[in-house]
Design goal:
A hairpin with a 7-residue loop joins β4 (72-82) and β5 (90-95). The chain has helices at 12-25, 55-67, 99-114, 138-147, and strands at residues 2-9, 31-34, 41-50, 72-82, 90-95, 127-135, 155-161, 163-172, 175-185. It contains four helices and nine strands; from the N terminus they run βαββαββαβαβββ. The protein has a single domain (2-185), classed as Cyclic phosphodiesterase (Cyclic Phosphodiesterase, Chain: A). The strands form two sheets. It has a five-stranded antiparallel sheet with strand order 2-6-5-4-7, with helices on one face. A four-stranded antiparallel sheet has the order 3-1-8-9. The protein starts with a strand and ends in a 9-residue tail after the last strand. The radius of gyration is 18 Å and the shape is globular.
Length: 194
């Protein structure tokens, strides 16, 4: 049995930019579990516990889906919180809406539901999770919201998405450790000279 999810890996330049954002807001958050930069990613679909004999079916399905998509650009931008800034539980960096990503996530969701994985009951909201907040005082949070206004709309970085990754997540007391099981390549986008 493996604990699996499908996601998008981030280049080092984007990770480093996200770390700079994290470092600006970290002093205002009193108690949180901060995601390690090497674990930064964008989830496409969380699968959860998966029998080993189902992995080949996932490979076949994802290879077929990804072969129909071209590489595309994504931009990370802005800082947000779930459920909101009045009661932040998750701090995240957002993704500028790109129809290709939403179309892809919808197709992956449908295909994985057909394979027996539970359907997601919320709209797709891709994000880079920075921290899971355990506790922060309201006045301290308000100070951050006032002093760090620039962070909330800051452009973090743009990068080319060339594949989706199937990750295994192993849970440890110190946090999750992710390992790559497979990468499913998109068709390279055509350039005007081709």
């Amino acid at each position: 049995m493996k604990r699996l999810f499908l996601g998008i890996e981030l280049p080092d330049t984007v990770r480093q930019a996200a770390v700079r954002i994290r470092d600006r807001i970290r002093p205002y958050i009193e108690k949180a579990r901060w995601v390690l930069p090497e674990n930064y990613h964008l989830t496409v679909k969380f699968l959860g516990n998966t029998p080993d004999d189902r992995v080949q079916t996932i490979h076949t399905t994802m290879t077929s889906i990804c072969s129909r998509y071209h590489t595309f650009e994504l931009e990370l931008k802005g800082l947000g919180a779930f459920p909101d800034w009045r009661r932040p539980r998750v701090l995240w960096i957002g993704v500028e809406r790109v129809s290709t990503l939403w179309d892809l996530a919808t197709e992956v969701e449908s295909a994985m539901t057909e394979l027996g994985y539970p359907a997601e009951n919320r709209p797709y909201a891709p994000h880079l999770t920075l921290a899971r907040v355990k506790y922060t005082r309201r006045p301290v949070l308000e100070k951050m919201l006032e002093r760090e206004k620039a962070v909330f709309e800051q452009r973090i970085g743009t990068f080319t998405v060339a594949y989706i990754t199937l990750f295994e997540s192993r849970l440890h007391p110190s946090g999750a450790v992710y390992s790559v099981i497979e990468r499913y390549l998109f068709t390279p986008s055509r350039t005007p000279s081709q």
